[in-house]
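Hi team, as promised in this morning's meeting, here are the two structures we talked about. I've kept the exact order from the run log so nobody has to guess. The first one is mostly here for context; it's the second one we should focus on when we meet again. Sequence first, then the predicted structure tokens.
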Amino acid sequence: MHNVAGCGNCSSEEVDTPPPRYTIPHCWPQFHPAVDIYSIICGPETISWLVREKTFYFRVNSCFDPVLHVPLLYLFTTQSGIRRTERFRAGDVRIVGCAKVSGGIAESSADRNTVYAAVELIRISKAEFEFLRRQSILALPRGRRPDAKLRLEDFAPTREMRAALTHWLQNPVKSSPYAAIVEQFLPEELVSRCAALSFSDPAHPFATYVRAPFSDENGASDLRHVRPLLPELETRFTFIDLFAGIGGFRLAMQQEGGKCVFASEIDQNARDTYERNFRVLPFGDITSDETKGMIPQQFDVLCGGFPCQAFSMAGKREGIEDALQRGTLYREIVEIARCHRPKALLCENVRGLLNAHKGRDWSIIRAAFEGAGYRIIFENILNSKDYGVPQNRERLYIVALRDDFAARADALGLAFPKKPPRIPGPIPRCIGDIRERDPARVSKSFYLGESYLQTLIRHKAKHRDQGQSGFGFIVRNDDDIAGTLMCGGMGRERNMLQDPEDFQPDWMPPAHMKGSINAKRYRFMTIRERARLQGFPDCFRIPDSISAGQKQFGNCVTVSVVRAVGRTLVNFLKQIEESVNHG
């Protein structure tokens, strides 16, 4: 029969010290097949753990054992001394990972191939226990239940382990740094099965993790409409995603045939949005040696929208001297490029980088790139409104080639275009093309209260009377284009919309609003409208928090611009490589 195994708290939260562990009883459980009951004599601490965690573990032979038997009833009794008896029946069943995971399952003699069935315990009364025991047990559910499943969090209970596992699931290559970590705690049969199947295959062991966010009310999931979010089977190049945010670079480069082999982002909310969509959790702080150690040795393109606050026109513009060191994070790109030697670098920043401190900062950054063995072949301000979205957003895009590739381009007479061509296809040309038409999708939380609107009106008039432009507020018409999306300051007020009088069924204010909704029906853009202005498809799952969504889409890159520059870069590299191969 199966032996009982101990366990710990399989929390997905990142912890520094292992949580308390379940004490393995000295007496193994006794199984009574006639009545389908496990009866166990154990210490009071074990019963307390079971009552608290409501989970019982069986060691099983395989993650995919089709005849796994799960007893229905469990009777736990303390040893002599304080008498205590607890009765449970079985609930949900899942397969969980091995005991080597710190903070996960705790078992005295576990190895990498140890696998468990985790049974949810549902506490019942003595009367109910006796009633079920007297019933014809053969008529009750037995064996492995239809909803038994593999859960990612059972195999990777901490965030960094989750990052390693999700990276490996999309890139199950033995030579990758995260593969070495995964193979320490993932059972061998799971390693083999995951490596043999496509990440989006319904038969993949972790198919539930991949497909659940995109499932309908009945649990059915058709991934065809979210194809841009998942990697293609055949890829043209590999890239890494530094300062990844919510994944604008990844979305653009995947659509151009790229495969992301590493992502890093320090902001926790952005990491959650990234995982929610691309089904991979980025690693954390790229300045740490541990995070940099997870980067695969070889990849083709380094992508990075390194933090721009230190150079932004809306900030203090301290540049490289920024007190928070946001202006020095370009050094991480330089260090990684020097170590891994990708073919090209593709970066984005605010236009203010070019003239910060009278151009001194940009000269320092350019020299650092050149010192790492890269030549900048493209540094130009591109406007999002020219690349398929109705947003006036100017940003600096930088392309650098490794010196040997740059030399080959010179020999071939190749020049990177000053303005990469837009990706063909239908485009929204004005705000009317991206605004919500369904009132159910516009929460009343986005409408301004009457008192707040009057404050904005007074603020604008004061600046005008003093001869100052200020930020003020701007209500955009449907045939306008939006101003630059921002994550703070007066950014929201510069891109307000006005809804028609009959748009909402009623104009009752939300509970948190003091007073009434403003009579002109002015509102902020919804998070979905902001996402569309940045080129994100409607299949992209936005964050639940309004403030987080405003920040994330104000900070991110415009997907359509990155895609245009990325396609030009990939074709440029292809020309160089083909000439070498044929020459």
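And here is the second protein, the one for discussion:
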Amino acid sequence: MHNKLKNLNAKELASLAENIRGFLIRSISDTGGHLASNLGVVELTLALHAVFSSPKDKFVWDVGHQSYVHKILTGRKNAFSTLRKMDGLSGFPKVRESEHDAFGTGHSSTAISAALGLAAARDALGKTGKVVAIVGDGSMTGGQSYEGLNNAGRANTDLLVVLNDNQMSIGKNVGAISRHLNDIRTTPAYLGAKRGAHNLLDNLPLVGAPLSKGLETAKDILKYMVIKGVLFEELGFRYFGPVDGHDIKSLVEVMRRIKDIKGPVLLHVLTQKGKGYAQAEDAPHAFHGVEAFEVKTGQPTNDTVKETYAKVFSEHLCKRAVQNSHIAAITAAMPDGTGLTRFATQFPNRFFDVGIAEAHAVTFAAGLAINGMRPVVAVYSSFLQRAYDQILHDVALQNLPVIFAIDRAGIVGEDGETHQGLYDLAFLSHIPNIVILAPANAGELRDMLDFALAHNGPVAIRYPRGEAAPQGGDATPPIIYGCAQTVRTGANIALVSVGTMLATALKVADNLQEAGFSPSVYNARFIKPIDETLLFRLKDYGYVFVLEDAAQWGGVGERLGVPQGHRFAFPDRFIESGTQEELFARYKLDAVGITNRIKEIIK
């Protein structure tokens, strides 16, 4: 379809945009996915494909969840019923999926760096074609975007950066960059002022170097006074915009004019997240990532209210913050997803949204901690990967009391490879000074948060996406530093569970008991330090099996010295999309799969 767009006029492109919007709303209402961001880039994506020629011209989509229209236009519309499903269409650009996906993206602020690499390789190998990075304004709160801009401005290679400015990341955009972009939005005469000023100054007769220098100074002064795109121009980019991102005629005209400009160019496009669907326009953050929903009302198809781990964490943190004025909370542009919206409302002076800047969030927390605060950094497991050096160097090395509330640890599900939280145990457990815990249920999460708030050093608590397992009727023993919990006592077989795998371990124990075995069940609680008493106990068993929702290498099983075949964890590969239940079943990490494997090993 993308090749045919070049033959369509503005009216036909506008009509196609509305058809695509309708398709997106209907399709995502069935499958779930990222809705608001894609509704906002319909005209922008159409204009890109109408002016440029993919795959010869390369499109790099920052974050990647705004690439649905790109996928529709490049031959994947008929596969949209499989979006984010097991063995189906990925919710993000994926090089293995299509030649039109020039670079795989799932995290933020990477597109400019990747696009510059593509452009530099093109130049070095004598290839042709344009490279375009499409970057949301939320991604511009991430430091890597500016590392890329700075390098691209100095490299002076042909590169187009399209800044999709919708004033949103997942939560509301924050910080000085957001204010700068808002300033640009309020300068409607920008393009005319810039064009007129350049025409006036460039057409004056130049008499010698002094006058030439004077004119350049005049241009600089005018830029600072009138042209708010000076930030990008000082970085070496030619800035154009802002342009109405829903005016398809203007978009196509501007892109055609700037397409062949040499060197780095930045096109600033203003869009509305959720455009064309009233419910998403009114609440774009709520329609960022959605489950299946009713089109007419916008309400989830399955509207059962669940007590999630994020909700349990949120409520208990707020309860403790009432009692302790030193507690602060930090998020990297995800107050809703991590459950910190409640904290932000109750304690606005102790809540900090730093934008999409996880590395900064961690070092900022270290600064808070060293000056007397008790900061809690709430972050998804897959995004914490972006702050490894800061955890090690700024927090753990100084043994600071920073708490990492690691949400969506383990298998996340439909968002696939880029979002599975399987690696936090591996990259945290070898760092000195840090304590790592995993709750088996809602009650343990509360108790572990209390433990962390009282501990004089860094603590990480990892918990999964989704409904929190209830604590159960019996009171569980308190959280004691480095101690596991004995849940069931048996003989010859020991099952050691990590975090929420306890529920699976108990089902496996029941299955084994029905088969004539008598297994013990232990809840590890602490990933680091490992319970040394438990280590001695395990020597008395003929068979020891470890169950964990993490990567096999670097997890508890490896730390306990359990043979690889006795460690039930995810294999050494990136785990694809699918529901949590489907993925546990596929990798034989559900109760049935684990029971069958244990029986085979014992026989």
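Starting points for discussion:
Confidence is low (pLDDT under 50) at residues 173-178, 184-198, 204-213, 221-227.
The longest strand covers residues 543-551.
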